[in-house]
Design brief:
464 residues; 3 helices
Length: 464
């Protein structure tokens, strides 16, 4: 959403976002979906793929989006963030159903409007979830079936619809772009029959990712124009290839690939070793439209909607992931670290520890994982055990902490860990904790005086 914006923005955090490759069965499913009716449901995942998120936007005409899945961005900036959303766009985003609403036929409509004084409003929503990323050795596919605003020529001047993603560390910071990564799955300006796809990363301006333009490419919609019909826009992030790749496709045909070896390892890691959240919006004006003739003027027609039939996220696993249990977790049985209910900064990966499966890695200062409904019973737990490994450099260490019911509560216990001799060199570390009874949500939090990764965790449990 920031391609060619020309608006300076600050710098990176740590980690990264990765790659993309399409299986033939998946490409065929996408091609079929592209020609389906406007009210089509999200396609059934092909063999080997699992759906991890979807919204078909079914609901009563004129109703808003499901706020369990989506949040509205309102105003002209994130709280404390860059003005005009950092891109120079001129509209005010609202949560009004005049700007963001279901049409009653299985579509979401995001509609720019202009009032009598010439002021523009529009809509921008993003997923509450920020954890969309592929598993170690696996793939993630994020796709949507969209009809761009059906307006072209002078009447489309300033229109900037987009379907895109931002790295999780951006949320709440708002000044670490482009280092934390941005994936523009679909952008369009001025009603052109063109789909742009871009990865943003590194530093701004310039840097290894050519900011503010990013690493991008474009293609045209065929059959019908991008404005004249629904098309499927997708990104696949592929951790099963070497080097890792991020691939962008239109109606099942890949037209842009970004490889990890196109930038230095630190830039790639900062942009990819974390989850992402998804954004849908229609901006008016800003740096990208400016590059193709300018923002809205008196001849621009308001009221043309971007229609979104569905958004779907699929995952193809590269390892065995332990799903969250459906009932209470037993505090005194091994809780697999990758079975978290929520997290920030956590990367599941295959482990060579006894029993195989996955551990959680890339853990550094400020990261956390949540495990809901841990039952300690009526006899107090006083011990905490965690299976950990570390290949941290000399002088790099940190704390593995246990907090109850809030990730900002005072830890009930913790232990320090430095290098164990390697990221898959495992040991079980005990720690005393304050007495705990009853059922609690358990947060593992990770605190360090350095920004570097310092620990992996395979499992943990508690004792009396």
């Amino acid at each position: 959403m920031s391609a060619s914006s020309g608006i300076p923005r600050p710098r990176p955090l740590r980690r990264a976002l990765v790659a993309v490759a399409a299986a033939l069965g998946l490409a065929a499913a996408v091609a079929t979906a592209a020609t389906a009716p406007a009210s089509a449901s999200a396609p059934t995942p092909p063999a080997g793929w699992t759906q991890v998120f979807a919204d078909d936007f079914n609901g009563a005409a004129g109703s808003g989006v499901n706020t369990a899945d989506w949040r509205y961005d309102t105003g002209t900036a994130y709280p404390g963030g860059a003005a005009n959303w950092g891109t120079g766009e001129v509209e005010t985003m609202t949560s009004s159903t005049s700007n963001v609403a279901l049409d009653g036929n299985g579509n979401l409509l995001i509609t720019p409007r202009r009032d009598a004084s010439g002021h523009w409003t529009s809509g921008r929503i993003e997923t509450n979830r920020t954890d969309f990323q592929p598993p170690a050795g696996g793939k993630l596919r994020v796709q949507a079936r969209i009809r761009m605003p059906d307006v072209t020529g002078a009447a489309a001047k300033g229109y900037w619809p987009a379907f895109w993603m931002l790295g999780a560390p951006f949320r709440g910071n708002y000044w670490n772009w482009p280092g934390i990564g941005e994936l523009d799955i679909m952008e369009n300006v001025q009603g052109l029959n063109t789909d742009w796809a871009t990865m943003h990363c590194g530093t701004n301006p310039g840097g290894p990712c050519n900011e503010t333009s990013g690493i991008g490419n474009s293609t045209s919609c065929t059959g019908t124009t991008c404005q004249g019909g629904f098309h499927t826009y997708a990104m696949e992030w592929d951790r099963s290839t070497s080097p890792e790749q991020i691939r962008f496709s239109l109606d099942g045909v890949t037209f842009h690939t970004v490889r990890a070896d196109q930038v230095d390892a630190t830039t790639w890691a900062n942009a990819t070793e974390h989850g992402y959240f998804i954004i849908l919006n229609v901006a008016m004006g800003g740096g990208f439209p400016d590059a193709f003739g300018g923002g809205p003027d008196g001849g621009t027609e308001p009221g043309h909607s971007m229609a979104v039939d569905y958004v779907q996220v699929l995952q193809s696993s590269g390892g065995t992931t332990t799903p969250p249990p459906t009932g209470n977790r037993d505090a005194y049985g091994a809780i697999q670290a990758e079975s978290y209910d929520s997290q920030s900064g956590v990367v599941p990966e295959a482990t060579t520890d006894t029993g195989g499966g996955q551990d959680i890695g890339s853990l550094a200062n400020g990261d956390w994982a949540l495990y809901k409904g841990v039952n300690f019973g009526s006899t107090a737990a006083r011990q905490f055990y965690a299976r950990v490994a570390s290949g941290a450099a000399g002088g790099v260490s940190g704390l593995v902490e246990v907090r109850l019911d809030s990730r900002t509560s005072t830890p009930v216990g913790s232990f320090a860990v430095g290098s164990t001799g390697g990221w898959q060199s495992w040991r079980t570390v005990p720690a005393n904790i304050g007495p705990v009874t009853g059922t609690h949500d358990v947060y593992l939090t990770f605190t360090s005086g350095q920004p570097a990764d310092f620990v992996n965790v395979n499992w943990f449990d508690f004792g009396h």
